[in-house]
Design brief:
By secondary structure, the protein is mainly α. Helices cover 40% and strands 0% of the residues. The protein has 4 helices and no strands. The N and C termini lie far apart (50 Å).
Length: 101
């Protein structure tokens, strides 16, 4: 239940989506990061960047956010990952290839 304070009239327990203090396992965070990259969810990526998340994480096949952004044709994400996050631009996944530009 939401508890409201009488003095300010504001809810005490409202969820603020801009604050990322939710408990996420590293695996959940990684999967969410990779999904945000392939779908172009820039707000999620900005949030992870502000939380100092490692954008070079890879999944079980060695695919990184950069791999998936290229595969998903998410060029805004690719630029963000390379220029802002300074990701490794030549990661190799399990098929021994890297993404192409």
């Amino acid at each position: 239940a939401v508890v409201s304070t009488q003095s300010t009239g504001k809810d005490n327990n409202k969820f603020n989506p801009t604050i990322s203090k939710l408990e996420e396992t590293k695996e959940q965070q990684m999967m969410s990061l990779l999904f945000a990259a392939v779908t172009g969810n820039m707000s999620q990526l900005y949030r992870y960047h502000s939380d100092n998340v490692d954008f070079n994480w890879s999944d079980y096949d060695g695919r990184t956010a950069l791999h998936l952004a290229v595969c998903g044709e998410q060029m805004d994400v690719v630029v963000f990952l390379v220029k802002q996050c300074k990701v490794n631009i030549n990661p190799i996944h399990s098929w021994k290839t890297s993404q192409s530009y």
